[in-house]
Amino acid sequence: MSRQSGRSNDPRKVSGELLTLTYGALVAQLVKDSESDDEVNKQLDKMGYNIGIRLIEDFLARSSIGKCKDLRETAEIISKNGFKMFLNITPIVANWNQSGDEFSLIIDNNPLTEFAELPDEHKSLSYCNILCGVVRGALEMVQLEVETKIVQDQLKGDNVTELKVKYIRKIEEAAPAGDD
Amino acid sequence: MIFNLYIYDRSGTCLFYHEWNRQKQVDVSREEDFKLMYGMTFSLKSFCNRISPTDPNIGFTSFKTSQYKLHFYETPSGLKFIMTTDLQIQGDIRFLMHTLYKDVFVEYAIRDPECELNKPIKSKLFSEKLNEFIQKQPQFGNIAQTALSSIVK
Amino acid sequence: MSIGEDIIFEYLHMEIVNVVAGREGIHNKDLIVSKLEKMGHRVGQGMIDRFTKDSPRFKDELDIMKFICKDFWTAVFKKQVDNLRTNHQGVYVLLDKKFRLLTHLSSEKEYVEIAPKFIAFSCGLIRGALSNFGLISIVTADVNSLPECRFQVQIHR
Question: Any idea which UniProt keywords this protein has (chain A) (predicted)?
Protein backbone atom coordinates (compact mmCIF):
# COMPACT_ATOMS: atom_id res chain seq x y z
CA MET A 1 0.00 0.00 0.00
CA SER A 2 1.15 3.48 -0.73
CA ARG A 3 2.04 5.60 2.22
CA GLN A 4 1.96 9.10 0.88
CA SER A 5 0.43 11.66 3.18
CA GLY A 6 -2.37 14.09 2.49
CA ARG A 7 -4.63 11.39 1.23
CA SER A 8 -7.69 13.49 1.73
CA ASN A 9 -6.25 15.69 -1.01
CA ASP A 10 -7.02 12.93 -3.46
CA PRO A 11 -10.77 12.56 -3.38
CA ARG A 12 -10.77 10.16 -6.29
CA LYS A 13 -8.64 7.71 -4.34
CA VAL A 14 -10.85 7.91 -1.27
CA SER A 15 -13.95 7.48 -3.42
CA GLY A 16 -12.34 4.48 -5.04
CA GLU A 17 -11.59 2.93 -1.67
CA LEU A 18 -15.10 3.47 -0.42
CA LEU A 19 -16.38 1.74 -3.52
CA THR A 20 -13.91 -1.15 -3.25
CA LEU A 21 -14.65 -1.73 0.42
CA THR A 22 -18.40 -1.50 -0.08
CA TYR A 23 -18.20 -3.99 -2.91
CA GLY A 24 -16.14 -6.28 -0.72
CA ALA A 25 -18.71 -6.08 2.08
CA LEU A 26 -21.44 -6.90 -0.42
CA VAL A 27 -19.68 -9.99 -1.78
CA ALA A 28 -18.91 -11.19 1.75
CA GLN A 29 -22.55 -10.79 2.73
CA LEU A 30 -23.79 -12.59 -0.39
CA VAL A 31 -21.38 -15.46 0.19
CA LYS A 32 -22.67 -15.77 3.72
CA ASP A 33 -26.30 -15.70 2.63
CA SER A 34 -26.05 -18.00 -0.38
CA GLU A 35 -25.96 -21.73 -0.86
CA SER A 36 -23.36 -21.78 -3.59
CA ASP A 37 -20.78 -19.68 -5.39
CA ASP A 38 -22.89 -19.99 -8.47
CA GLU A 39 -25.79 -18.32 -6.72
CA VAL A 40 -23.51 -15.45 -5.70
CA ASN A 41 -22.23 -15.08 -9.25
CA LYS A 42 -25.77 -14.88 -10.57
CA GLN A 43 -26.78 -12.33 -7.97
CA LEU A 44 -23.76 -10.15 -8.73
CA ASP A 45 -24.50 -10.31 -12.43
CA LYS A 46 -28.10 -9.33 -11.80
CA MET A 47 -27.10 -6.41 -9.60
CA GLY A 48 -24.66 -5.31 -12.24
CA TYR A 49 -27.39 -5.41 -14.84
CA ASN A 50 -29.62 -3.20 -12.71
CA ILE A 51 -26.76 -0.75 -12.28
CA GLY A 52 -25.83 -0.88 -15.96
CA ILE A 53 -29.26 0.08 -17.23
CA ARG A 54 -29.13 3.26 -15.13
CA LEU A 55 -25.45 3.98 -15.40
CA ILE A 56 -25.66 4.15 -19.19
CA GLU A 57 -27.84 7.25 -18.88
CA ASP A 58 -25.27 8.96 -16.66
CA PHE A 59 -22.67 8.02 -19.18
CA LEU A 60 -24.55 9.26 -22.23
CA ALA A 61 -25.64 12.45 -20.50
CA ARG A 62 -22.11 13.36 -19.46
CA SER A 63 -20.15 12.22 -22.44
CA SER A 64 -22.49 13.44 -25.21
CA ILE A 65 -21.47 10.39 -27.21
CA GLY A 66 -23.78 9.53 -30.08
CA LYS A 67 -24.64 6.19 -31.59
CA CYS A 68 -21.70 3.91 -32.40
CA LYS A 69 -21.29 2.81 -35.97
CA ASP A 70 -20.01 -0.68 -35.23
CA LEU A 71 -18.96 -3.06 -32.49
CA ARG A 72 -15.32 -2.01 -32.71
CA GLU A 73 -16.20 1.56 -31.94
CA THR A 74 -18.47 0.39 -29.13
CA ALA A 75 -15.67 -1.68 -27.62
CA GLU A 76 -13.30 1.28 -27.67
CA ILE A 77 -15.85 3.55 -26.05
CA ILE A 78 -16.61 1.03 -23.29
CA SER A 79 -12.94 0.92 -22.45
CA LYS A 80 -11.66 4.45 -23.06
CA ASN A 81 -14.75 6.32 -21.97
CA GLY A 82 -16.93 4.05 -19.86
CA PHE A 83 -14.41 2.26 -17.67
CA LYS A 84 -12.28 5.38 -17.62
CA MET A 85 -15.10 7.57 -16.39
CA PHE A 86 -16.39 5.27 -13.68
CA LEU A 87 -13.43 3.20 -12.49
CA ASN A 88 -10.52 5.26 -13.77
CA ILE A 89 -9.07 2.32 -15.68
CA THR A 90 -8.76 1.67 -19.39
CA PRO A 91 -9.03 -2.03 -20.17
CA ILE A 92 -7.29 -3.21 -23.31
CA VAL A 93 -9.66 -4.27 -26.07
CA ALA A 94 -8.30 -7.53 -27.48
CA ASN A 95 -8.97 -11.07 -28.60
CA TRP A 96 -11.36 -10.29 -31.44
CA ASN A 97 -12.69 -13.44 -33.02
CA GLN A 98 -12.68 -13.95 -36.79
CA SER A 99 -16.24 -12.91 -37.40
CA GLY A 100 -15.69 -9.74 -35.38
CA ASP A 101 -18.60 -10.30 -33.02
CA GLU A 102 -16.65 -11.18 -29.92
CA PHE A 103 -13.96 -9.32 -28.01
CA SER A 104 -12.40 -9.12 -24.59
CA LEU A 105 -11.74 -6.34 -22.14
CA ILE A 106 -8.43 -7.07 -20.48
CA ILE A 107 -8.26 -5.55 -17.03
CA ASP A 108 -5.04 -5.14 -15.15
CA ASN A 109 -5.11 -3.58 -11.65
CA ASN A 110 -8.85 -3.92 -11.15
CA PRO A 111 -9.90 -1.50 -8.42
CA LEU A 112 -12.71 -3.80 -7.27
CA THR A 113 -10.27 -6.51 -6.23
CA GLU A 114 -7.67 -4.24 -4.66
CA PHE A 115 -8.16 -5.53 -1.12
CA ALA A 116 -9.71 -8.89 -2.00
CA GLU A 117 -8.55 -12.45 -1.62
CA LEU A 118 -10.46 -15.52 -2.64
CA PRO A 119 -10.67 -18.12 0.12
CA ASP A 120 -9.88 -21.70 -0.92
CA GLU A 121 -13.41 -22.92 -0.39
CA HIS A 122 -14.78 -20.39 -2.88
CA LYS A 123 -12.82 -21.22 -5.96
CA SER A 124 -15.78 -20.95 -8.28
CA LEU A 125 -16.72 -17.49 -7.06
CA SER A 126 -16.43 -14.95 -9.83
CA TYR A 127 -15.67 -11.97 -7.64
CA CYS A 128 -15.97 -9.32 -10.33
CA ASN A 129 -19.07 -10.78 -11.90
CA ILE A 130 -20.89 -7.52 -11.32
CA LEU A 131 -18.91 -6.07 -14.24
CA CYS A 132 -20.51 -8.62 -16.59
CA GLY A 133 -23.92 -7.40 -15.59
CA VAL A 134 -23.02 -3.72 -15.84
CA VAL A 135 -21.67 -4.07 -19.38
CA ARG A 136 -24.59 -6.25 -20.48
CA GLY A 137 -27.19 -3.91 -18.97
CA ALA A 138 -25.60 -0.77 -20.35
CA LEU A 139 -25.30 -2.19 -23.86
CA GLU A 140 -28.86 -3.45 -23.84
CA MET A 141 -30.00 0.14 -23.36
CA VAL A 142 -28.19 1.14 -26.55
CA GLN A 143 -29.90 -1.64 -28.44
CA LEU A 144 -27.11 -4.22 -28.27
CA GLU A 145 -27.83 -7.61 -26.82
CA VAL A 146 -24.61 -9.26 -25.65
CA GLU A 147 -23.40 -12.10 -23.48
CA THR A 148 -20.65 -11.35 -21.01
CA LYS A 149 -18.41 -13.62 -19.00
CA ILE A 150 -15.28 -13.43 -16.89
CA VAL A 151 -12.89 -15.92 -18.51
CA GLN A 152 -9.68 -15.02 -16.68
CA ASP A 153 -9.47 -13.80 -13.12
CA GLN A 154 -6.50 -12.31 -11.30
CA LEU A 155 -7.94 -13.52 -8.01
CA LYS A 156 -7.63 -17.05 -9.32
CA GLY A 157 -4.01 -16.66 -10.29
CA ASP A 158 -4.40 -15.47 -13.87
CA ASN A 159 -2.19 -12.62 -15.02
CA VAL A 160 -5.10 -10.42 -15.90
CA THR A 161 -8.85 -10.33 -15.55
CA GLU A 162 -10.54 -10.90 -18.88
CA LEU A 163 -14.15 -10.02 -19.55
CA LYS A 164 -15.46 -11.55 -22.74
CA VAL A 165 -18.24 -9.79 -24.64
CA LYS A 166 -20.16 -11.65 -27.32
CA TYR A 167 -22.54 -9.80 -29.61
CA ILE A 168 -25.90 -11.53 -29.97
CA ARG A 169 -28.16 -9.16 -31.87
CA LYS A 170 -29.27 -5.63 -32.38
CA ILE A 171 -32.50 -4.84 -30.57
CA GLU A 172 -34.88 -3.13 -32.95
CA GLU A 173 -36.82 -0.11 -31.79
CA ALA A 174 -40.36 -1.00 -30.84
CA ALA A 175 -42.93 0.33 -33.28
CA PRO A 176 -45.69 2.28 -31.58
CA ALA A 177 -48.54 0.18 -30.35
CA GLY A 178 -51.86 1.14 -31.77
CA ASP A 179 -54.51 0.33 -34.25
CA ASP A 180 -53.92 2.88 -36.93
CA MET B 1 -42.07 30.53 -25.28
CA ILE B 2 -42.21 26.90 -24.23
CA PHE B 3 -45.61 25.22 -24.52
CA ASN B 4 -45.17 21.67 -23.40
CA LEU B 5 -42.85 18.72 -22.96
CA TYR B 6 -43.18 14.98 -23.43
CA ILE B 7 -40.63 12.42 -22.29
CA TYR B 8 -40.92 8.88 -23.64
CA ASP B 9 -38.94 5.76 -22.90
CA ARG B 10 -37.80 3.56 -25.75
CA SER B 11 -40.86 1.38 -25.71
CA GLY B 12 -43.12 4.38 -26.19
CA THR B 13 -44.35 4.79 -22.63
CA CYS B 14 -44.87 8.43 -21.78
CA LEU B 15 -42.79 8.88 -18.63
CA PHE B 16 -43.61 12.50 -18.12
CA TYR B 17 -45.78 15.24 -19.55
CA HIS B 18 -46.15 18.82 -18.56
CA GLU B 19 -47.53 21.94 -20.16
CA TRP B 20 -46.80 25.53 -19.33
CA ASN B 21 -48.29 27.91 -21.81
CA ARG B 22 -50.50 25.65 -23.83
CA GLN B 23 -53.51 27.73 -24.78
CA LYS B 24 -55.64 25.25 -26.64
CA GLN B 25 -56.38 21.78 -25.36
CA VAL B 26 -56.47 18.77 -27.62
CA ASP B 27 -59.83 17.13 -28.10
CA VAL B 28 -58.65 13.64 -27.22
CA SER B 29 -57.75 12.04 -23.89
CA ARG B 30 -54.29 12.41 -22.41
CA GLU B 31 -53.53 8.79 -23.16
CA GLU B 32 -54.59 9.20 -26.74
CA ASP B 33 -52.57 12.41 -27.06
CA PHE B 34 -49.45 10.60 -25.78
CA LYS B 35 -49.97 7.77 -28.24
CA LEU B 36 -50.55 10.10 -31.17
CA MET B 37 -47.48 12.17 -30.38
CA TYR B 38 -45.28 9.10 -30.06
CA GLY B 39 -46.65 7.54 -33.22
CA MET B 40 -46.26 10.72 -35.22
CA THR B 41 -42.63 11.34 -34.21
CA PHE B 42 -41.82 7.67 -34.69
CA SER B 43 -43.16 7.77 -38.24
CA LEU B 44 -41.58 11.11 -39.02
CA LYS B 45 -38.24 9.86 -37.81
CA SER B 46 -38.28 6.75 -39.95
CA PHE B 47 -39.69 8.63 -42.93
CA CYS B 48 -37.00 11.32 -42.69
CA ASN B 49 -34.31 8.67 -42.59
CA ARG B 50 -35.80 6.82 -45.52
CA ILE B 51 -35.96 9.80 -47.87
CA SER B 52 -32.66 11.34 -46.76
CA PRO B 53 -30.48 12.10 -49.80
CA THR B 54 -27.34 11.54 -47.71
CA ASP B 55 -26.58 9.15 -44.90
CA PRO B 56 -28.72 10.49 -42.06
CA ASN B 57 -26.63 11.29 -39.06
CA ILE B 58 -29.09 12.72 -36.62
CA GLY B 59 -32.22 12.65 -38.72
CA PHE B 60 -35.45 14.29 -37.68
CA THR B 61 -34.93 17.15 -35.23
CA SER B 62 -37.85 19.54 -35.59
CA PHE B 63 -40.75 20.77 -37.67
CA LYS B 64 -42.82 23.89 -37.60
CA THR B 65 -46.27 25.07 -38.52
CA SER B 66 -47.48 28.63 -38.77
CA GLN B 67 -48.20 28.54 -35.03
CA TYR B 68 -45.64 26.44 -33.24
CA LYS B 69 -42.43 24.50 -33.54
CA LEU B 70 -41.86 20.94 -32.36
CA HIS B 71 -38.36 19.94 -31.24
CA PHE B 72 -37.27 16.34 -31.02
CA TYR B 73 -34.25 15.04 -29.13
CA GLU B 74 -33.46 11.35 -28.78
CA THR B 75 -30.68 9.90 -26.64
CA PRO B 76 -28.68 6.90 -27.89
CA SER B 77 -30.57 4.91 -25.25
CA GLY B 78 -33.83 5.68 -27.01
CA LEU B 79 -35.28 8.21 -24.58
CA LYS B 80 -37.25 10.84 -26.46
CA PHE B 81 -37.69 14.43 -25.38
CA ILE B 82 -40.29 16.32 -27.36
CA MET B 83 -40.97 19.97 -26.79
CA THR B 84 -43.26 22.42 -28.51
CA THR B 85 -42.54 26.13 -28.50
CA ASP B 86 -43.67 29.24 -30.27
CA LEU B 87 -41.92 30.35 -33.46
CA GLN B 88 -39.97 33.17 -31.85
CA ILE B 89 -37.93 30.79 -29.77
CA GLN B 90 -34.20 31.45 -29.86
CA GLY B 91 -31.23 29.24 -29.21
CA ASP B 92 -30.51 25.55 -29.45
CA ILE B 93 -33.52 23.75 -28.02
CA ARG B 94 -32.01 20.32 -28.55
CA PHE B 95 -29.09 21.39 -26.40
CA LEU B 96 -31.57 22.63 -23.82
CA MET B 97 -33.21 19.21 -23.86
CA HIS B 98 -29.85 17.48 -23.53
CA THR B 99 -29.13 19.62 -20.49
CA LEU B 100 -32.52 18.75 -19.10
CA TYR B 101 -31.70 15.07 -19.66
CA LYS B 102 -28.38 15.45 -17.86
CA ASP B 103 -29.29 17.77 -15.00
CA VAL B 104 -32.86 16.77 -14.27
CA PHE B 105 -33.77 13.42 -15.78
CA VAL B 106 -30.61 11.56 -14.83
CA GLU B 107 -30.29 13.25 -11.44
CA TYR B 108 -33.86 12.94 -10.22
CA ALA B 109 -35.37 10.03 -12.13
CA ILE B 110 -32.57 7.64 -13.03
CA ARG B 111 -30.75 8.16 -9.76
CA ASP B 112 -33.83 8.04 -7.59
CA PRO B 113 -33.77 4.54 -6.09
CA GLU B 114 -37.55 4.58 -5.88
CA CYS B 115 -38.07 5.46 -9.52
CA GLU B 116 -38.95 2.54 -11.77
CA LEU B 117 -37.40 2.97 -15.16
CA ASN B 118 -40.21 2.20 -17.55
CA LYS B 119 -43.13 3.62 -15.66
CA PRO B 120 -44.48 7.18 -15.62
CA ILE B 121 -42.46 9.27 -13.17
CA LYS B 122 -44.38 9.93 -9.98
CA SER B 123 -41.68 11.77 -8.07
CA LYS B 124 -42.64 15.24 -6.95
CA LEU B 125 -39.00 16.17 -6.57
CA PHE B 126 -38.54 15.38 -10.25
CA SER B 127 -41.39 17.58 -11.42
CA GLU B 128 -40.28 20.39 -9.11
CA LYS B 129 -36.74 20.29 -10.45
CA LEU B 130 -37.96 20.07 -14.00
CA ASN B 131 -40.27 23.02 -13.56
CA GLU B 132 -37.49 25.01 -11.99
CA PHE B 133 -35.20 24.14 -14.87
CA ILE B 134 -37.70 25.06 -17.58
CA GLN B 135 -38.81 28.28 -15.93
CA LYS B 136 -35.30 29.62 -15.58
CA GLN B 137 -34.62 29.17 -19.30
CA PRO B 138 -34.57 32.47 -21.15
CA GLN B 139 -36.78 30.80 -23.74
CA PHE B 140 -39.46 29.96 -21.22
CA GLY B 141 -41.32 33.23 -21.49
CA ASN B 142 -44.87 33.81 -20.54
CA ILE B 143 -47.84 35.21 -22.27
CA ALA B 144 -47.74 38.64 -20.69
CA GLN B 145 -44.08 39.13 -21.49
CA THR B 146 -44.49 38.04 -25.07
CA ALA B 147 -47.40 40.37 -25.59
CA LEU B 148 -45.37 43.22 -24.18
CA SER B 149 -42.36 42.57 -26.35
CA SER B 150 -44.47 42.47 -29.48
CA ILE B 151 -45.84 45.90 -28.62
CA VAL B 152 -42.31 47.23 -28.06
CA LYS B 153 -41.27 45.91 -31.46
CA MET C 1 -19.01 17.43 -11.56
CA SER C 2 -18.95 14.29 -9.47
CA ILE C 3 -16.31 11.67 -9.76
CA GLY C 4 -17.21 8.47 -11.59
CA GLU C 5 -16.51 6.28 -8.59
CA ASP C 6 -18.98 8.29 -6.53
CA ILE C 7 -21.73 7.61 -9.01
CA ILE C 8 -20.91 3.91 -9.04
CA PHE C 9 -20.88 3.88 -5.27
CA GLU C 10 -24.34 5.44 -5.16
CA TYR C 11 -25.72 2.94 -7.64
CA LEU C 12 -24.06 0.10 -5.77
CA HIS C 13 -25.57 1.32 -2.53
CA MET C 14 -28.97 1.54 -4.23
CA GLU C 15 -28.66 -2.05 -5.44
CA ILE C 16 -27.43 -3.32 -2.09
CA VAL C 17 -30.49 -1.81 -0.42
CA ASN C 18 -32.68 -3.37 -3.12
CA VAL C 19 -31.20 -6.81 -2.74
CA VAL C 20 -31.20 -6.86 1.04
CA ALA C 21 -34.74 -5.47 1.18
CA GLY C 22 -35.83 -7.94 -1.51
CA ARG C 23 -34.35 -10.92 0.29
CA GLU C 24 -35.66 -10.16 3.70
CA GLY C 25 -39.09 -9.06 2.56
CA ILE C 26 -40.80 -5.79 3.30
CA HIS C 27 -42.17 -6.94 6.66
CA ASN C 28 -38.78 -7.54 8.09
CA LYS C 29 -37.72 -3.93 8.42
CA ASP C 30 -35.52 -4.47 11.45
CA LEU C 31 -33.58 -7.27 9.82
CA ILE C 32 -33.06 -5.21 6.67
CA VAL C 33 -31.74 -2.30 8.68
CA SER C 34 -29.48 -4.47 10.82
CA LYS C 35 -28.00 -6.26 7.82
CA LEU C 36 -27.24 -3.03 6.00
CA GLU C 37 -25.86 -1.54 9.19
CA LYS C 38 -23.45 -4.45 9.59
CA MET C 39 -22.19 -4.09 6.05
CA GLY C 40 -21.63 -0.40 6.64
CA HIS C 41 -19.78 -1.18 9.85
CA ARG C 42 -17.32 -3.33 7.99
CA VAL C 43 -16.73 -0.61 5.41
CA GLY C 44 -16.35 2.09 8.06
CA GLN C 45 -13.62 0.12 9.78
CA GLY C 46 -11.80 -0.37 6.49
CA MET C 47 -12.04 3.30 5.60
CA ILE C 48 -10.51 4.41 8.90
CA ASP C 49 -7.72 1.84 8.53
CA ARG C 50 -6.71 3.54 5.35
CA PHE C 51 -7.68 7.04 6.27
CA THR C 52 -5.85 7.77 9.48
CA LYS C 53 -2.54 6.09 8.79
CA ASP C 54 -0.78 9.42 8.74
CA SER C 55 -3.14 11.48 10.82
CA PRO C 56 -1.99 12.81 14.15
CA ARG C 57 -3.30 11.17 17.30
CA PHE C 58 -6.52 12.56 18.63
CA LYS C 59 -6.51 14.06 22.08
CA ASP C 60 -10.03 13.10 23.15
CA GLU C 61 -13.43 11.85 22.13
CA LEU C 62 -14.64 15.26 20.99
CA ASP C 63 -11.56 15.57 18.82
CA ILE C 64 -12.44 12.28 17.16
CA MET C 65 -16.03 13.39 16.64
CA LYS C 66 -14.81 16.58 15.00
CA PHE C 67 -12.63 14.52 12.70
CA ILE C 68 -15.65 12.37 11.80
CA CYS C 69 -17.78 15.43 11.10
CA LYS C 70 -15.18 17.16 8.97
CA ASP C 71 -12.57 14.99 7.27
CA PHE C 72 -14.36 11.69 7.31
CA TRP C 73 -17.73 13.17 6.32
CA THR C 74 -16.18 15.15 3.49
CA ALA C 75 -14.39 12.09 2.17
CA VAL C 76 -17.35 9.78 2.37
CA PHE C 77 -20.40 12.02 2.09
CA LYS C 78 -18.80 14.86 0.09
CA LYS C 79 -19.58 17.67 2.51
CA GLN C 80 -19.19 18.49 6.17
CA VAL C 81 -21.77 17.88 8.83
CA ASP C 82 -23.78 21.08 9.18
CA ASN C 83 -24.17 20.98 12.90
CA LEU C 84 -22.64 18.96 15.73
CA ARG C 85 -24.09 19.04 19.22
CA THR C 86 -23.21 17.14 22.34
CA ASN C 87 -24.41 16.83 25.93
CA HIS C 88 -20.80 16.17 26.98
CA GLN C 89 -21.89 12.82 28.33
CA GLY C 90 -21.26 10.74 25.27
CA VAL C 91 -24.24 11.71 23.16
CA TYR C 92 -23.62 13.52 19.88
CA VAL C 93 -26.16 14.75 17.39
CA LEU C 94 -24.92 15.26 13.85
CA LEU C 95 -27.14 17.15 11.48
CA ASP C 96 -26.59 16.92 7.73
CA LYS C 97 -29.02 19.12 5.86
CA LYS C 98 -28.35 17.54 2.52
CA PHE C 99 -27.33 13.99 3.12
CA ARG C 100 -25.58 12.44 0.15
CA LEU C 101 -27.57 9.23 -0.04
CA LEU C 102 -30.89 11.02 0.20
CA THR C 103 -30.45 13.80 -2.33
CA HIS C 104 -32.01 11.90 -5.22
CA LEU C 105 -34.97 10.62 -3.25
CA SER C 106 -38.21 12.40 -3.84
CA SER C 107 -39.40 14.45 -0.90
CA GLU C 108 -42.83 13.13 -0.19
CA LYS C 109 -44.21 11.78 2.99
CA GLU C 110 -44.13 8.15 1.93
CA TYR C 111 -40.43 8.46 1.19
CA VAL C 112 -39.72 9.55 4.70
CA GLU C 113 -41.11 6.23 5.81
CA ILE C 114 -38.87 4.18 3.56
CA ALA C 115 -35.83 6.36 4.31
CA PRO C 116 -34.48 4.12 7.15
CA LYS C 117 -33.21 1.53 4.69
CA PHE C 118 -31.30 4.22 2.83
CA ILE C 119 -29.45 5.44 5.92
CA ALA C 120 -28.79 2.15 7.74
CA PHE C 121 -25.59 1.49 5.82
CA SER C 122 -24.33 4.97 6.71
CA CYS C 123 -25.12 4.47 10.40
CA GLY C 124 -22.98 1.35 10.29
CA LEU C 125 -20.26 3.23 8.47
CA ILE C 126 -20.05 5.76 11.31
CA ARG C 127 -20.17 3.10 13.99
CA GLY C 128 -17.41 1.17 12.20
CA ALA C 129 -15.25 4.26 11.91
CA LEU C 130 -15.66 5.06 15.62
CA SER C 131 -14.89 1.49 16.63
CA ASN C 132 -11.51 1.80 14.98
CA PHE C 133 -10.75 4.64 17.35
CA GLY C 134 -11.68 2.37 20.21
CA LEU C 135 -15.07 3.97 20.72
CA ILE C 136 -17.98 1.62 21.15
CA SER C 137 -21.17 3.31 20.07
CA ILE C 138 -24.74 3.02 18.93
CA VAL C 139 -25.59 5.08 15.88
CA THR C 140 -29.15 5.78 14.88
CA ALA C 141 -30.63 8.27 12.47
CA ASP C 142 -33.90 9.85 11.64
CA VAL C 143 -35.25 11.72 8.69
CA ASN C 144 -37.98 14.27 9.11
CA SER C 145 -37.83 15.94 5.78
CA LEU C 146 -35.67 14.92 2.87
CA PRO C 147 -32.80 15.28 2.17
CA GLU C 148 -32.03 16.21 5.76
CA CYS C 149 -30.75 13.54 8.13
CA ARG C 150 -30.02 13.65 11.85
CA PHE C 151 -27.62 11.08 13.24
CA GLN C 152 -27.41 10.33 16.91
CA VAL C 153 -24.24 8.79 18.26
CA GLN C 154 -24.22 7.35 21.73
CA ILE C 155 -20.78 6.43 23.01
CA HIS C 156 -20.46 3.70 25.60
CA ARG C 157 -18.04 4.63 28.30
Answer: Endoplasmic reticulum, ER-Golgi transport, Golgi apparatus, Lipoprotein, Palmitate, Transport
Q: Where are the domains of chain B?
A: 2-136
Is the reported ipTM for this assembly greater than 0.90?
A: yes
Domains: count for chain C: 1
Distance CA C12, CA A1 (A): 25
d(C-alpha C33, C-alpha C16), whole Å: 12
CATH class of A16-170: alpha beta
Using a CB–CB cutoff of 8 Å, tell me whether B111 touches chain C.
Answer: yes
Q: Could you give the angle at which helices C116-131 and C29-51 cross, rounded to 10 degrees?
A: 40
Q: What is the pLDDT of residues B101-140, one digit of tens each?
A: 999 999 999 999 989 998 999 999 999 999 999 999 887 8
CA–CA dist A48, A138 (Å, integer): 9
Domain ranges, residue C79: 3-155
Identify the pLDDT of residue C127.
Answer: 97
Indicate the domain borders of chain A: 16-170
Contact C35 A29 (CB under 8 A): yes
Q: Is C118 in Cβ contact with B113 (below 8 Å)?
A: yes
pLDDT tier, C56 (very low <50, low <70, confident <90, very high otherwise): low
> Which stretches of chain A sit within 8 Å of chain C by CB?
1, 3, 5-8, 11-12, 14-19, 21-26, 28-29, 33, 43, 47, 50-51, 54-55, 58, 62, 84-88, 111, 115
Q: Is the pLDDT of residue C52 over 90?
A: no
Those chains having 3 or more beta-carbon pairs within 8 angstroms of chain B are A, C
Instruction: Please answer whether residues B47 and A36 qualify as being in contact, where contact means their C-beta atoms are separated by less than 8 angstroms.
Output: no
Helix (H) or strand (E) holding B39: helix B30-51
B143-153 mean pLDDT: 45
Whole-number pLDDT of residue B152: 43
C neighbours by CB contacts (3+ pairs under 8 Å): A, B
Contact at CB, C3 and A11, closer than 8 angstroms: yes
* B2-136 maps to CATH 3.30.450.70: yes
Burial of B130 (0-12, 13-18, 19+ CB in 10 A): buried
A89: chain C residues, CB-CB within 8 Å: none
pLDDT tens across A73-103, in order? 999 999 999 999 999 999 999 999 999 999 9
